[in-house]
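Standup notes, structure subgroup. Blocker cleared on the zinc ion input:
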Amino acid sequence: MTNFKSTDCDMATIIKTFLADYRQRYKLTPEQASVCQSIIQCQTESLGGEHRQCTACGYQQPLYHSCGNRHCPRCKQNASEQWEEKQLDALLPVTYYHLVYTLPHEFNAWCQLHPKIMYALLFKAVWQTLSQFSNTHKRLQGQLGVTCVLHT
Ligand SMILES: [Zn+2]
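Run returned:
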């Protein structure tokens, strides 16, 4: 086990510290390995960038490119916060419910092979289920709306 200080708590540091040990016990999919690599390289010299220099004192500050990976907490946090603000702006003064729909684990391989098709089918099934519920429920009078978020 590698030395790890609790003050080293950014995702890239955690992955760099524990990835080798983890890979000795578990196999990563190519996608998982790619995500780990992206997070480790995000905003570092390995992705390139530029050096900014203060015209007054000459101090140089490197600005490295972000990885752009949707799983990277460093470069996707702003996008996530903007999405959340947009959703909050669209809220109506009504009661909301949090529903969770899951797929059986038997579909995991299918989701890895055909994610767009499988998740589109999941969302379609969710919408059909909720629509049928609202159309047949006597006390509900109105059209349901949903915001679907995929957690993989
Ligand atoms: Zn990143």
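Discussed briefly. The CA atoms of residues 32 and 127 lie 30 Å apart.
Next: hand off to the docking folks.
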